[in-house]
Design goal:
Strand content: 15-25%
Shape: globular
Largest sheet: 5 strands, antiparallel
Order of helices and strands: HEEEEEHH
């Protein structure tokens, strides 16, 4: 079995961000918390702020679905986890992804135009 390298995880983060920004990924809150998840056919991705303040450090997890017994709760195994520190190397990428995931989960797709439109600009 071949595991995921740090570069593989970085590519996954970048790809998820690109898919989120182009509305190809749909995020939702996990159990009403400040943790967000999205899924593909074979994987589920979770992201959260480690201290629940929307800022670094972050936790990012990749889970591989191994059975589809229940569409809403497939059996999965964790294949990667990143837990950054306050000044961790991936904090920039994860911060951007976290914000995009949160906005997507709340249905906010164009914050700038929403704000300026509401102000009459």
């Amino acid at each position: 079995m071949i595991g995921l390298s740090e570069e593989d995880v970085r590519v996954a983060i970048t790809t998820l961000l690109r898919r989120t920004q182009s509305s190809q990924a749909s995020w939702k809150r996990w159990q009403g918390s400040e943790e967000y998840l999205t899924s593909t056919a074979k994987f589920t991705f979770y992201i959260k702020s480690r201290d629940d303040d929307d800022n670094p450090p972050y936790v990012f997890e990749i889970w591989r679905k191994i059975s589809e017994d229940s569409e809403s709760n497939p059996e999965s195994v964790k294949v990667a986890e990143v837990m950054t520190k306050q000044s961790g190397e991936l904090n920039g990428e994860l911060s951007t992804l976290y914000t995009a995931a949160k906005m997507n989960a709340f249905g906010i797709s164009d914050l700038r135009n929403d704000l300026l439109g509401d102000l009459g600009q």
